[in-house]
Every structure is written in structure tokens, then in C-alpha cells.
Amino acid sequence: MADESKPSKVDPLEGRSGVHSATRHYINLIEKQNQHRVAELLKHRKRTNLTGLGLFGVVVGIYAYTISAVKQEKFLDDFEEPKFIEKRV
Questions:
Q1: Confidence category of residue 89, pLDDT binned at 50, 70, 90
Q2: Where is 67: in which H helix or E strand?
């Protein structure tokens, strides 16, 4: 059974014996450019994921701080209803 985690490399020139050397050179150049592009995209994806995790951490921290700050407020706990004074007629 073949290792399915890595895709097999496909040779676009396989089975074509009459391919010009300039075409082979151009295909190899494009492959190298594509590999470089993929490496750059992976680097950007890693930085983007780290930035997203950092922002998520900040949001969770602000939310937790807000919840804990609201729990500490006691001004409504000691609230007494005002006593009504009866009017004499």
C-alpha cells in the first residue's frame, strides 16, 4: 500500500519523447517558481494563524476581565427600597 500522506510527483513529460529541451527547461522553471510560491504561502499561513490565535487570546482575556469586574460590583446588592411616607389628609 502506498504512502497516502505524500502525493506522488507527476511528470507532465512522461510518455512524450519528442519534447523540446526549451520546453523541458520552461517546465522545470515553472516547477521551481511554484515550489517557492508554496513555501511563501505556508509561511504566511503560519503567521496568520499565530495572529488569529493572539487576537482570540486578547478577546477571551477582555471577556474574562469584564465578567470578573461585573461580578465585583456590589451597588445593587445593598439597594434598599425607599420608604413611603403616608400623607395626612
A1: low
A2: helix 21-72
Q: Quick one: which of 12, 5, 42 has its CA closest to 27?
A: 12
Give residue 44's domain range. 20-76
Q: How many domains does the chain have?
A: 1
Report yes or no on 70 lying in a domain: yes
Note whether residue 34 is domain-resident: yes
User: What sign has the CA pseudo-torsion 23, 29, 31, 37?
Assistant: negative
pLDDT in tens, 12-60: 666 666 778 888 889 889 999 999 999 999 999 999 999 999 999 999 9
Question: pTM, whole model, 2 decimals?
Answer: 0.51
Would you state the cell numbers that stand for residue 24, as one nine-digit string?
Answer: 523541458
- Residue 30, in any domain of the structure: yes
